[in-house]
Amino acid sequence: QVQLVESGGGSVQAGDSLRLSCAVSEGSEGTLKTYAMGWFRQPTGKEREFVAAARWGDDSRAYYSDSVLGRFTISTVSAKKTVFLQMNGLNHEDTAVYYCAASTKRIGLRRVGAEYDYWGKGTQVTVSS
Fold this sequence. Notes:
Elements: E1 3-7, E2 10-13, E3 18-25, E4 36-42, E5 49-55, E6 63-64, E7 72-77, E8 82-87, E9 96-103, E10 118-119, E11 123-128
Parallel strand pairs: 2-11
Antiparallel strand pairs: 1-3, 3-8, 4-5, 4-9, 5-6, 7-8, 9-10, 9-11
């Protein structure tokens, strides 16, 4: 069983930065069952949307949505089973609940939520303009 726990959300001003963390727990076995990690977000009253994704240890080939490209950075630390989302230059449109997700698929559509097998409960990010 894989469990994901997000942290690092909060309320900030436009232009500020935040770093979200997602701790991955894969039970008693040491070998990672997940191959890729993703971040998604859901603004109030809107559908969930893709933010960023990367395979473990392959951050240089990460995927980003157009709305966050150049401002957000995903990083994976396999040894710590943790994935981060560094968010710079935040604006009001970034306000949402942010979810961490894990995929057990070696190959998949990383931008698609249905491709992920496990989800965290989310952490709220609020940006005041």
